[in-house]
Amino acid sequence: MNPGDRVRVDRAGVTNEGVLMPSSTPDHLVVKLDGGYNVGIERAEADVKVVESDVYDVDSAHSESETSEIEFDEALPTISLISTGGTIASTVDYRTGAVTAQFDAEDVLRAVPDLAGRANYRGRVVANILSENMTAGVWQDLAEVVAEEIRAGADGVVVMHGTDTMQFTASALSYMLDTPVPIVFTGSQRSADRPSSDNVMNAVSAVEAAKSDAAEVLVCMHASTDDNACALHRGTRVRKNHTSRRDAFETVGAEPVGNVDYDSGTVEFRREYAERDAVDLNVRTGLNGNVDLLKSTPGLDVDRYADMLRDADIDGLVIEGTGLGHVHTDLIPVVEELTDDGVVVAMTSQCLAGRVCDRVYDTGRDLLDAGVVEAGDTLPGTAKVKLMWALENLAHPADAMRRSLAGELQERSVPWT
Amino acid sequence: MTDYDYDDLGLVAGLEIHQQLDTATKLFCRCPTTERDPDDSTRSFTRSLHPTRSELGELDDAAVEESRVDREFEYLAYDTTCLVEEDEEPPHRLDTDAREVALQIADLLDMEPVDQAHVMRKLVIDGSNTSGFQRTALVAQDGAIETSAGPVGVEDLLLEEESAQRVEERDDGVTYSLDRLGVPLVEIGTRPDIDSPEQAREAAETIGMLLRSTGSVKRGLGTIRQDVNVSIAEGARVEIKGVQALDDIDDIVRREVGRQVGLLSIREALAARDAGVGDTQDVSEVFADTDSGVIGGALADGGSVTAVPLYGFDGLVGREIQPDRRLGTELSDHAKRNGAGGIFHTDELPAYGVTDAEVAALREAVDAGEEDAVAIVAAETETAELAIEAAADRAETAIEGVPEETRGANDDGTTRYLRPLPGAARMYPETDVPPVELDPSDVETPELLTEKVDRYHSEFDLEAGLAEQVAYGRRMRLFERAVGAGIDATFAAGLLESTLTELRRDGVAVGELADNHLLGVMRLVDDDELAKEGVEEVLSTIASDPDLTPAAAVEEAGLSGVSESDVRDAVSDVVDRNADQVESQGMGAFSALMGEAMGALRGKADGEIVSDVLREEIQKRA
């Protein structure tokens, strides 16, 4: 008796016939009845007969679907769709009941027929992982693949990514690549297996953005709960600010750089952007993995953290300080030890919005004396990725943390623009 | 209405009863189940939906047909709805109260609960669910109810979320209200054991009674809906959705049988004529100079007129199969599903501004003879093409007989085409909600309403009619609370049924009276702090100012503080004024003076005390 078999189950005088499905609990058989309902029946109490074996191939139900014919149209730009896994290209795993990524980029075209006619597509799969499992190694592979696609003639790149850590990967690519074409990240907050999924509008809008003139790393996600427009966020300024809403992604400290109207496909920009073909493609994927992000919170055991930091043998530390950029005073000597050892220590704020300023209070001044570098209004997560990259690729990484490399640090605080 | 020999026709019917539960919160979030006025909406948003495959990789026909029409859905949200209704947050765990009520209903229907309920997603992409599916779980199976014509099996009990309420329909979309979305709903499906219209109605009544016996179901318009599945031996299974009133069920069944019988006789006639459906084509030229408003309007807007010749159909398209509904109406329903306003056909033409000459030209254009009919659609070109194809397909089906389909109940007991029958392909697991193990062991079996009626009659001596009114009424629980608190049962029943009904008829806002108001007033009477005669006035006072406590309302109405000496003074005044009458008639004047005395006291005093005092005063003077 295996999942996919047609079975008849007798239990307490009730007979059910249907297809055996994978069960998430060992004590129950799950039977899909002819009306479509699944019911769980206690295994120990049930009398089961297999009526017919392998009525359905439960495991590969999704790969049965027909291959779509993709025609090349010379009048259209070529967009490369790169999949890393995640909800936009995911489906339900009926063994665990969880949503997992099982699609490749080709499947996305099938899943989102609205993409047809907007571009010629190339598909690549770099990874098939949930974004919480993202690694620096995948960032590097992704940057190489994006570069290959651009060299191969892609007029724009769309990266499909799980939403949990999309902002980190977008930051990483912002530093690793000088790009002559748009690189647009998109994903979905509501899984692709529901008719209401945001994947259709996000994917369509991302393709439109990838066809646009903005040669930057952007994140394209719902601008509001409505299915009418996507916002375009700069990869280094964007943050997932809600666990489940469609419009979870926000540009911190500014309005989004642009937006895409869903009906018309029109892409509009609010601010200046790097124009298409203004730079030659350049890839520098080196990353230093010995960088940590430390959040300073009340109740933190200073001694334990001090030991941890001394033993960690790190090359860089980003502190997510309180307020204007502070840590518990007792930690300052530890910071000084680190900087004396040549560790770059950069300060950001857990306020997220606003700029750190360690010249206002004594703690801040002491931190500066201890060798801390102020990262301005750089987001803590972005600062970590930046420091990982800067340590490998720049002669003076500490200085680099004070200035903008890829739009991550705004010189003027004008959040209304 | 024609009645048929249902045995002979092989009528088989089943019911699906949908009942909202009266739980404190919704099925998958902690929002209240309160109904709201769309005007009180605090925000709105718009969405679109796309069909998805089941876990077995299949697409559902009904979902695909629905998705052909490109529509935008607007949703109204309230301060009583949250992100779950907006499909912006995963569902919470299945509400335990709703689960308990469902198990209680399973018990009343003599059903076996399943060991583990799996919440499924049932694809519904007409926008009535923000997610694009309805969450539903099979909770119990294999029960039965009794009817006078024999038992009717109950196949399944589903616990599911109610859909959003449709507020407005526009050309390009629909507006829905989120207040109703997620209210717990049970769906009870009977086996097709029903073989007459009367039995269908009786079975529905019995199930309704059992549901209300739980005391945990919502009451009022739209809180219970019946779907009826009907087929006859030569016909086909048809699901009729949304029968609002129980009283309509037998009529709906009769009229559906009539429709199927009518379609079968059309099939016979078509077979005899060797009928067929020709190719659709554009006939805009025929109507280039038409005086018909509908057709001329469509052409002036750049649209087209499309036509299909129906060979051998002459006279049959216009044949009535339900009151004021013809085969042509069925074709029209299908054309409407594809965005057209409807069809015209030659059985009804010339009319609507279409001339004899145009009809002749139309017949000629599509090569249709006298035995044939022609159907046309005038609309925007793409719509006109889709709609005439849909009408042609339906005409094709008429040659085969009765199509299986889902239909909607109209107010007059007729039905209209809605969509194809949904299949199992529209169901896949709701992975956001873990399976729920059901434990029926601690479910309490409630007293049935029929048992309550008997008990009220025997225990409280309520006469049968009043006992039934109270037991089936909305204030049954309040009545039981009052009686439990020692209030006289007859008084409580009279107040909750007759008094409130009278007040409503007099235009008092009875809806403002909360259970505590009513119970408080009953207590005041029970404690002799308010005369029964003052009850109506106190209730009216509270209804116009619901913030008043019952005691304050008694003050406000000026009905407090009437001592026996006040009564004696008032009665004595009355007797004095009518001294002549008292002298001549003695006790014979009692009735007339009683009325006057009560009037003078304006219900402030108990009638029995007034009557005692009056009797004494008359005796003194006679």
Automatic annotation (TrEMBL), chain A:
Active site: T87, T163, D164, K240
Ranges where the GatD N-terminal domain occurs: 1-51
Catalytic activity as recorded in UniProt: L-glutamyl-tRNA(Gln) + L-glutamine + ATP + H2O = L-glutaminyl-tRNA(Gln) + L-glutamate + ADP + phosphate + H(+)
Superkingdom of the organism of origin: Archaea
GO molecular function: asparaginase activity; ATP binding; glutaminyl-tRNA synthase (glutamine-hydrolyzing) activity; transferase activity
InterPro entries: AsnA_fam (IPR006033), Asp/glu_Ase-like_sf (IPR036152), Asparaginase/glutaminase-like (IPR006034), Asparaginase/glutaminase_AS1 (IPR020827), Asparaginase/glutaminase_AS2 (IPR027475), Asparaginase_C (IPR040919), GatD (IPR011878), GatD_N (IPR040918)
This protein's UniProt keywords: ATP-binding, Ligase, Nucleotide-binding, Protein biosynthesis, Transferase
Residues in Asparaginase/glutaminase C-terminal domain copies: 290-397
Keyword Transferase among UniProt keywords: yes
Family: Belongs to the asparaginase 1 family. GatD subfamily.
Assembly and oligomerization: Heterodimer of GatD and GatE.
Role noted for this protein: Allows the formation of correctly charged Gln-tRNA(Gln) through the transamidation of misacylated Glu-tRNA(Gln) in organisms which lack glutaminyl-tRNA synthetase. The reaction takes place in the presence of glutamine and ATP through an activated gamma-phospho-Glu-tRNA(Gln). The GatDE system is specific for glutamate and does not act on aspartate.
Protein name: Glutamyl-tRNA(Gln) amidotransferase subunit D
Organism: Halobellus salinus
Automatic annotation (TrEMBL), chain B:
GO biological process: glutaminyl-tRNAGln biosynthesis via transamidation; translation
PROSITE patterns in the cross-refs: GATB
MF terms in GO: aminoacyl-tRNA ligase activity; ATP binding; glutaminyl-tRNA synthase (glutamine-hydrolyzing) activity; transferase activity
InterPro entries: Asn/Gln-tRNA_amidoTrfase_suB/E, Asn/Gln-tRNA_Trfase_suB/E_cat, Asn/Gln_amidotransferase, Asn/Gln_tRNA_amidoTrase-B-like, GAD-like_sf, GAD_dom, GatB_C_1, GatB_Yqey_C_2
Species assigned in the record: Halobellus salinus
Source domain of life: Archaea
The protein's Enzyme Commission number: 6.3.5.-
SMART domains, per database record: GatB_Yqey
Task of the protein: Allows the formation of correctly charged Gln-tRNA(Gln) through the transamidation of misacylated Glu-tRNA(Gln) in organisms which lack glutaminyl-tRNA synthetase. The reaction takes place in the presence of glutamine and ATP through an activated gamma-phospho-Glu-tRNA(Gln). The GatDE system is specific for glutamate and does not act on aspartate.
Family: Belongs to the GatB/GatE family. GatE subfamily.
Keyword ATP-binding part of the UniProt annotation: yes
Known catalytic reactions: L-glutamyl-tRNA(Gln) + L-glutamine + ATP + H2O = L-glutaminyl-tRNA(Gln) + L-glutamate + ADP + phosphate + H(+)
This protein's encoding gene: gatE
An example Gene Ontology CC term for this record: cytoplasm
Pfam families per UniProt: GAD (PF02938), GatB_N (PF02934), GatB_Yqey (PF02637)
Stretches assigned to the Asn/Gln amidotransferase domain: 477-618
Protein name: Glutamyl-tRNA(Gln) amidotransferase subunit E
Keywords on record: ATP-binding, Ligase, Nucleotide-binding, Protein biosynthesis, Transferase
Keyword Cell division listed: no
Subunit structure: Heterodimer of GatD and GatE.
